Amino acid sequence: MSDIHLEREFAVTPERLFDVVSTRAELIRWWGHDGWTFTDENIDFSRTGPWFADMRSEEGNRYKLSGQVTLVNRPRSIGFTWAWHDDEDKRGPESHVTFTISETGVGAKLEVDHRELASDDIAAQHARGWAGPLGRLSRLLSDERKP
């Protein structure tokens, strides 16, 4: 099993960052990659219970994820399980994600820990995969600060 750890700082309060990474209305603004659209979703990390996201890339490829939100500790942390679905909608191996938010001198830091990935190669793919949504999150929060 392999793990990844990513960190990003944002010039927002921990409470604002928590809202952006937990609530459906905010998640659908940055989750996924540029050009992807949601075809179906129940993505809400502000409460425990099931979640899923069914998305399409610009090329028309389908990407479906699902899991269970297991921990909500506003405004500090969120924990959830994560599994990709195959073309027949069969759920693959499950891993675990934790968002940890802490106050910093410039605002708030988001730490993403994605644990129990099947291999080092899968972990490297997920590290690259998180770069797109985290980049979108950075742009979203940066745009909010513009007059």
TrEMBL record:
InterPro entries: ASHA1/2-like_C, START-like_dom_sf. Residues 12-141 form the Activator of Hsp90 ATPase homologue 1/2-like C-terminal domain. It holds the Pfam family AHSA1. Belongs to the AHA1 family. This is SRPBCC domain-containing protein. It comes from Sulfitobacter sediminis.
